[in-house]
Amino acid sequence: QVQLVESGGGLVQAGGSLRLFCAASGRTFGNYGMAWFRQAPGKDREFVAGISRDGSLSGYGGSVKGRFTISRVNVKNTLSLQMNSLKPEDTGIYFCAQSRNTGYSSSTSAIEYWGRGTQVTVST
Known about the structure:
Elements: E1 4-7, E2 10-13, E3 18-24, E4 34-39, E5 46-51, E6 58-60, E7 68-73, E8 78-83, E9 92-99, E10 111-114, E11 118-123
């Protein structure tokens, strides 16, 4: 079974930057699309960014496009999310996720494995 462990969360001021990391176990990391989702208390889990298995395709939620960058290094089983120009509305728990196929999806139903999440808090 795949295990995903996020790190890099913390408290930053609006306008600042933060970089999240996801370490994955298993030998098939490079066969699947990956994604980042986030969730605030009492709210639905929201798609943030996704990337295809080889990194050639990526997509972003409209609220983060132009500010966040997703990347992966398959030989190291790692996924990253560079977050710039952070806003208070970016606050939430950020989850690393592995898709059921080679692509990525903005839907949680397409996710097979989830990390436990890392907290990101952006102050005004």
